[in-house]
Amino acid sequence: MNIEQFLADPSFEGWARQSNAKDFAQWESWRAEHPENIEQMDEARALIVGLEFRHTIESKTDKQAEWDALSQRLNLSKRPAKTRTMNRRVWWSVAASLALIVTASWWFWPKGHAQEIKWLTATTAYGELQPVRLPDGTLVTLNANSSLRYPESWNAGSSRQVELTGEAFFEVTHKTDDAPFIVKAQSMEVHVLGTSFNVLARHTSPVVSLVEGKVRLNHIKSSSPVMLSPGETASFNEINGQFNIIKGKTNERTSWRDRRWVFDHTSLAEILQRIEDEFGLKIQEIDQQLLSRKVSGQVSTKQKGTLFMALEALLDVDITEENGQLRVED
User: Fold this and answer.
1) Cα–Cα–Cα angle for 195, 160, 43, nearest 5°?
2) How far apart, in whole angstroms, are the C-alpha atoms of residue 266 and residue 299?
3) CB-hemisphere CA count at 13 Å for 70?
4) Cα-flanking dihedrals φ and ψ of residue 18, to 5°?
5) pLDDT of 185-242, one tens digit each?
6) H or E segment and range at residue 260
7) Out of 52-66, 187-201, 218-232, 314-328, which region has the weakest mean confidence (pLDDT)?
8) Assigned CATH class of 259-329
9) Which architecture does CATH list for 119-252?
10) Over the chain, what is the mean pLDDT?
11) Which residues contact 237 (CB under 8 A, 6 or more apart)?
12) Where are the domains positioned within the chain?
């Protein structure tokens, strides 16, 4: 798919704005299956998100005037015409985003020396862990089936922002100028200085587990940020609009870095969801009573076969993998 096709799909906008859970899950799955389209998806998302900053353009007349002014500044009228056409949705998406880019360039570089920010994306396949060293020296360990988007470089004193989909462990480098480090994960932002923490952002609201230092959590549905201390794990309750904070369980949340899963009264339903997320296996229908069975202990995830044998022993079940599907029976 190309950028125009992404922009023309309403469900893609739900993914880009993270405004529709079903659309977000659908496109995240598609993204994982089509890594060759990640760059086009990110560019299309940038165009859509750019429209949020142009909400003051309300009428078609205003839009046309804005586009005419932009055309004059970019000398678009002098460029050769292209035979390729865009639908109206794509046209105004590009126009609004170009206007945003020109405005930002004029504000930050009034002498006309525009500087383009180059974004990089690190991704992992199912069953893969990958260390990523950011420009400031921060070390990020990406869990399986995850992606991290970050700039190629940061200006001194400016905030360091990255975007996470999936799960990652961060060991943030403290800067002498106290430049903040911000992780954007779905509808949550994690603000830190020098610290170590884990972020899980897959199906539900992101879960943040702090190992060292301090972090501040902001959520788009809450006006009250919260501070985490070492050993605390937080998530956001979409129903009551409040953060839930529990003490402990950080080892359970971060053991994946050593290719181990630690369970503490963890249900089979949670374990199977994790297998699907990190190994890409589809789970066949299972009896509901079996899904509620819980287990405590730890297992190695270095080999799927070893993992499944350990789970069979811990849960007293039979596990069979065939053609990318997993069957669990009592």
Assistant:
1) 130
2) 13
3) 17
4) 55, 40
5) 988 999 986 689 999 999 878 999 999 998 999 998 888 889 999 999 999 888 888 8
6) strand 260-267
7) 52-66
8) alpha beta
9) Sandwich (2.60)
10) 78
11) 205, 243, 244
12) 3-108, 119-252, 259-329
